[in-house]
Amino acid sequence: MTDESTLLDLDQFEKLAATGEINTVVCATPDPYGRLVGKRLTIPAFRSLGLSGAGINASSFIFAVDLEMNPLDLPVSNADNGWADIRLVPDLTTLRRVPWEPHAALVICDAYEADSDTMLAVAPRTILRQQIERAREQGLAFKFASELEFFLAATPPRQAWELGYQNLKMLSDYRSDYQMVQAGRDDWFIERIRNQMPGFGVSIESSKPEWGLGQQEVTLDYCDTLEMADRHVLFKYGVKQLAHAADLTVTFMAKPKIDDVGSSCHLHVSMWSSDGSPLSWSADTAGMSAKFGSFVAGQLTHAADMTLLLAPTVNSYKRFQPDQFAGTAIALGADNRSCAFRLVGKGPSFRVENRIPGGDVNPYYAYSATIAAGLDGIARELAAPDIFDGNAWTGTGVPIVPTSLHQALRLFEECKMARAALGDDVFDHLLSSSRSELVAFDSHTVTDWEMRRYYERV
Q1: Phi-psi region of 336 (alpha: psi -120 to 50; beta: other; left: phi over 0)
Q2: Of the candidates 341, 312, 280, 411, which has an alpha carbon nearest to the alpha carbon of residue 32?
Q3: Looking at the domain assignment, is residue 155 inside a domain?
Q4: CA angle centred on 398, ends 421 and 315, rounded to 5°
Q5: 92 dihedral zone (left: phi>0; alpha: psi -120 to 50; beta)
Q6: CATH number, residue 190
Q7: pLDDT tens over the chain, length 458 residues
């Protein structure tokens, strides 16, 4: 389902550059938080560095910082190695125009070591490539789709910052899940997403208002694994750009308010042979094939162990409340939204939906976790999970996902499958990065809750 009509080959690019229609090339790579980082190049610089040269130099620091851009002491980048350079090498299959920047093109880059042709092991795109290759060696491929939710406030971004993101005027005044009246009111902006994203190479299926105040859901068409992770990141980049231009503030936080619903990112995945044949569905059983059943079983088996890669922030775990449709109950349901894993569709469209991730998820990490856990299920020939019938949130004996980053870190650290699948360097990098985030919250933060609770009363 990949739509290549919006992508540029080099001949098209050179024609547009020669006429001046394109004068800037955004060379960017996804960072550990799923943000695009990189440089904007002139056309001559892109030709000499991106096309004919060794790539665009950048500091390895981009893979070893927190969200405030504070350097972390990680093996890939630290004071001892001088925050050494890496190379960003354009993946020319991703070259595209930017609809809201008429004179700009964008290309996603892979990160390489400075003095070799080896991809940087801890770069998110490299991590996902590794898992895709592990599957390919077994004759398997996967197609994914991200189903993203986010909140929009009718407050300009600079004003929202100055307000500390408190008491923002949300785009809707009351709950409007699926309501077409609200959809019509919002469409002056949401229409820009639906109609401009395809021109950015991000195919859109649908949009609708969600349950939360100002909350929206936009569903992306499914495609091959790496392309879908790229589209996910490009979509968030584009929504933020479009919202800023419209004087709206957008957040993909998992839980912006404790008294409102959180934003999910449901992940849909189906199994295919490397030659393009669907493998998820069994016509004999009108359900999961034996191999896909093992793949799904692996996901359930390792759901708690791998939650760290599905819920990456302290805030992620505030969303895990059983009565708000978050994927807290580790069970498999047939079109059952109380279960963390939900079977959807039939025939070639048959797939499993993972409801654990929130809108803050890094897709490269989440897809990697999905593939690694599923391949382990296949290797061990795990039996397909039983289908849970009823309310999984109140089901007897149904395990739940970790409810804090502390717990998720401990389970991930103890997961031998994750270390083996990811490799020591990547595993330790992910573990150390998450520990740094937790220390920043636990030791360097005084919350509003603490101020209200303790200021006068202790």
Answers
A1: beta
A2: 312
A3: yes
A4: 65
A5: alpha
A6: 3.30.590.10
A7: 334 458 999 999 999 999 999 999 999 999 999 999 999 999 999 999 999 989 999 999 999 999 999 999 899 998 888 889 999 999 999 999 999 999 999 999 999 999 999 999 999 999 999 999 999 999 999 999 999 999 999 999 999 999 999 999 999 998 888 889 999 999 999 999 999 999 999 999 999 999 899 999 999 999 999 999 999 999 999 999 999 999 999 999 999 999 889 999 999 999 999 999 999 999 988 899 999 999 999 999 999 999 999 999 999 999 998 777 888 999 999 989 999 999 999 999 999 999 999 999 999 999 999 999 999 999 999 999 999 999 999 889 999 999 999 999 999 999 999 999 999 999 999 999 999 999 999 999 999 999 999 989 99
Q: Is residue 268 a contact partner of residue 144, using CB atoms and an 8 Å limit?
A: yes
Q: What angle do CA 361, 418, 29 make, to 5 degrees?
A: 40
Q: Tell me the C-alpha distance between 133 and 127, whole Å.
A: 10
The structure tokens listed for 316 are: 């992620």
Domain hosting 323: range is 133-450
User: 332 - beta bridge partners?
Assistant: 341, 387
Residue with tokens 């024609």: 15
> For 309, phi and psi rounded to 5 degrees?
-85, -5
Residue whose tokens read 């692996």: 298
* 130-145 core/surface letters (b: 16 or more CB in 10 A; e: else): bbbeebeeeebbbbbb
State which of 120, 153, 180 marks the end of a domain.
Answer: 120
Determine how β-strand 265-273 pairs with β-strand 140-153: antiparallel
**What CA–CA distance (Å, rounded) separates 424 from 428?**
6
Helices (H) and strands (E) in the chain, counts: 13, 18
E strand or H helix that includes residue 334 = strand 332-334
Looking at the fold, whether 141 and 111 belong to one and the same domain comes out as: no
